[in-house]
């Protein structure tokens, strides 16, 4: 059974047209993360939530926003997508900040974003 | 600065053994993870090391030397399905937010 679900799996948008990616989880984890992964590159953390507390990475562009209306759902909003924002967007969850053998981050399948 | 280095690509033969190395320089250290990522799919957890030494899980083993900032993932009895990208990730010591710093991944191709 899928534990971290991302919809859609593939998203096509136009240059400058706002787009929202969604993530849901059935694990009841406190922490939800959003990563951007470009081809053949490392996943790059954009921001994360601990419950409702939002934590933005210093180098995440203002163009990227996030919402977490409840424990299960988290959204990534890209206000004005540029060609450089085409990437795989990965959502991950963890029970807490204390990652260990049994407390790793669980990843969703990702949404591949194409900007035309 | 923070830096995690892995070879970009490796090729091995079905049934053989392959070792994927990872070196890291981070602000402190709170553990190292290895993830497997098949093309177009999510990373899946393989192993975790926080103390020096070898952790074995079936065909996969992972080794850590904190003094050398070095880890490796050892895959034995390679199967075609092991063709994937292998990501090394370090949890920073200065972080109390569960933040992982990922390497760019090593793409492993297993040939018959």
General description of the model:
The complex is a heterodimer of chains A (116) and B (112). Chain A has 116 residues and is mainly beta. Helix content of chain A is 0%, strand content 50%. Chain A has strands at residues 4-7, 10-13, 19-25, 31-37, 44-50, 53-56, 64-67, 73-78, 87-94, 106-107, 111-115. In chain A, the strands form 2 sheets. In chain A, strands 2, 4, 5, 6, 9, 10 and 11 form a 7-stranded mixed β-sheet that branches. In chain A, strand 5 and strand 6 form a beta hairpin. The mean pLDDT of chain A is 92. Chain B is globular. Chain B is built from no helices and 11 strands. In chain B, strand 6 (53-57) and strand 7 form a beta hairpin. Chain B is mainly β and 112 residues long. In chain B, 0% of the residues lie in helices and 55% in strands. The A-B interface holds A 4, 31, 40-45, 48, 50, 55, 90, 94, 96-101, 104-110, 112 and B 4, 8, 30-31, 33, 35, 40-45, 48, 50, 87, 91, 96-100, 102-105, 107.
The H/E string of chain B reads: EEEEEEEEEEE
Question: What is the number of E strands of chain A?
Answer: 11
> Terminal Cα separation of chain B, in Å?
41 Å
Q: Give the largest interface.
A: A-B, 27 and 26 residues
Radius of gyration of chain B, in Å, reads 14 Å
- Quaternary organization: heterodimer
Straight-line N-to-C gap of chain A: 34 Å
What coarse outline of chain B follows from CA principal-axis ratios?
globular
In DSSP terms, counting alpha (H) and pi (I) runs of 4 or more, how many helices of chain A? Answer: 0
Radius of gyration of chain A: 13 Å
Q: Extract low-pLDDT stretches of chain A.
A: none
Which consecutive residue ranges of chain B, at least 5 long each, have pLDDT under 50? none
Mean pLDDT across residues of chain B: 91
Write the layout of secondary structure elements.
The complex is a heterodimer of chains A (116) and B (112).
Chain A: E1 4-7, E2 10-13, E3 19-25, E4 31-37, E5 44-50, E6 53-56, E7 64-67, E8 73-78, E9 87-94, E10 106-107, E11 111-115
Parallel strand pairs in A: 2-11
Antiparallel strand pairs in A: 1-3, 3-8, 4-5, 4-9, 5-6, 7-8, 9-10, 9-11
Chain B: E1 3-5, E2 9-13, E3 18-25, E4 32-37, E5 44-49, E6 53-57, E7 60-65, E8 70-75, E9 84-91, E10 100-102, E11 106-111
Parallel strand pairs in B: 2-11
Antiparallel strand pairs in B: 1-3, 3-8, 4-5, 4-9, 6-7, 7-8, 9-10, 9-11
